[in-house]
Amino acid sequence: MNLDAILSTLSGRQVSAKTIPGNTLEVWLGAPPQADHALVLAVHPPWRLVQVDGVVATSAEIPWDREVGESDADYRTRNDVARGASDILIGRTVTSVCYDSATDDLTIRFNDDLTLQSFTVWRDEPPWTLRLYAENRRVGPNLDEAIGPPPG
Predict the structure, then answer these.
(1) What confidence tens digit (pLDDT) does each residue in 4-51 have?
(2) Please, which of 66, 112, 113, 137 could form a disulfide with 75 given CB 3.0 to 4.6 Å?
């Protein structure tokens, strides 16, 4: 597997959707979620979205628990706001991908000066993966595995 070659195919693909299970950012590229030819980039924390004027969103901003004295409604609102900050990705087009094989960090640039940065902090787990639905395959740093078809 040549990971750089696979990642180079992401340039020009548009973000069709994004989801955040837990605080992992899933970016759907070039096709709607679960489509037979979809690509989904799962970026595990820590990650951040940056524009020229600063940080737009980070995995650390997504709350796990209610704060002391916080109502359920206020917690849900705070959670929704934190997750919604990454909606800025939807409709953007990948302009470049930079994978650092020494650190496994990943930087993806999108149109309008938006950048997604992934940082490796746990050496025994891949910081990000790319699921190739058409091939029922998942790749990433030190990872190339067959996976079953999506549930449906």
Answers:
(1) 999 999 999 999 999 999 999 999 999 988 888 899 999 999 999 999
(2) 66
The partner residues of 129 in beta bridges, in order of sequence, read 42
Tokens coding 32: 């709607």
CA 15 vs CA 22, 71, 97, 128: distances in Å: 20, 34, 14, 17
CA torsion, ordered 15, 13, 40, 57, to nearest 10 deg: -40
Report the distance separating Cα 111 and Cα 89, nearest Å: 10
Predicted structure pTM score? 0.91
